[in-house]
DNA sequence: ACATTAAGTGATT
DNA sequence: AATCACTTAATGT
């Protein structure tokens, strides 16, 4: 744990974190938090990666951003502090390790530890920056560009050039339809940017 | 061998 | 770029 958080947080705080929080194992593609759920814990990703997406009542989805090692989710913090239910859905992208911190510690540590305040503010900032990046992508990029960005982002995050998703899953993340994604992927394959296999897409470079 | 699920295709809006 | 209707291919039992 020290390797992920130690650089940012002071010793006394880390000691407290160890005392009150618990570690949770999640498997790949597990839904950690659904829209409407409420949170008793602030999760911090120790290992692995989490995907944060928006979802409406019809089940339409849109990927917002990812959370990696050492990061926490701004939206979750928000819904913890205000005791409202979640506006977002969190899904693990691979087997991951989460550090679950009881909500009530949030306020106490905000007053007590400067490094905790900075950690939380920093987290808000990076989440907001990432969110703007995806807004840009949706507003200004053509779908084929967005798709390629999606693929390279996944590859970077999972540290693998192979992406084990069906066209359907990709379509859901990008809020498009399966046929459209299939066709765009075919075009990318013809251009030599990717190779397509069943349940799998391979890029030759990031 | 058969059923199920993923991916490809042509036509239409 | 989305949707429909249909085909083909891959995979599990």
Question: How does this structure look, described?
Answer:
With 206 residues, the protein is α+β, with helices and mostly antiparallel strands. The chain is 46% helix and 24% strand. The protein has helices spanning 2-5, 11-20, 74-81, 103-112, 114-140, 143-158, 167-173, 178-190; strands at residues 22-26, 31-33, 41-47, 50-55, 61-67, 89-92, 96-102, 162-163, 194-197, 200-203. The strands form three sheets. Strands 2-6-4-5 form a four-stranded antiparallel beta sheet. It has a three-stranded antiparallel beta sheet with strand order 1-7-3. β9 and β10 form a beta hairpin. α7 packs across α8 (178-190). The radius of gyration is 18 Å and the shape is elongated. The two termini are 29 Å apart.
Tell me the radius of gyration. 18 Å
The chain-level structural class is alpha+beta
Global morphology: elongated
Number of domains: 2
Number of DSSP strands? 10
Which whole number gives the mean pLDDT? 91
CATH superfamily of the largest domain: Jelly Rolls
Strand proportion: 15-25%
Which CATH architecture of the largest domain is right?
Sandwich
- Stretches with pLDDT under 50, minimum 5 residues: none
How many distinct helices? 8
The main sheet orders its strands as 2-6-4-5
Share of helix, binned: 40-55%
**CA-CA gap between termini:** 29 Å
Let me know the largest β-sheet.
Answer: 4 strands, antiparallel
Write down the CATH topology of the largest domain. Answer: Jelly Rolls
């Amino acid at each position: 744990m020290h390797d992920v958080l130690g650089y940012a947080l002071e010793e006394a705080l880390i000691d407290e974190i160890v005392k009150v929080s618990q570690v949770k194992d999640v498997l790949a593609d597990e839904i950690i938090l659904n829209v409407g759920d409420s949170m008793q814990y602030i999760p911090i990703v120790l290992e692995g990666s989490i995907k944060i997406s928006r979802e409406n009542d019809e089940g339409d989805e849109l990927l917002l951003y990812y959370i990696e090692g050492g990061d926490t989710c701004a939206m979750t913090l928000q819904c913890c502090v205000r005791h409202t239910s979640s506006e977002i859905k969190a899904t693990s992208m691979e087997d991951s390790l989460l550090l679950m911190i009881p909500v009530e510690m949030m306020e106490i540590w905000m007053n007590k530890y400067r490094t905790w305040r900075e950690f939380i503010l920093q987290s808000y900032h990076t989440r907001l920056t990432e969110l703007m990046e995806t807004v840009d992508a949706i507003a200004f990029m053509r779908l084929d560009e967005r798709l390629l960005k999606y693929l390279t982002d996944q590859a970077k995050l999972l540290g693998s050039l192979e992406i084990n998703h069906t066209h359907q899953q990709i379509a859901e993340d990008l809020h498009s339809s399966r046929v459209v994604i299939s066709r765009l992927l075919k075009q990318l394959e013809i251009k030599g940017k990717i190779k397509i296999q069943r349940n799998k897409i391979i890029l030759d470079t990031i």
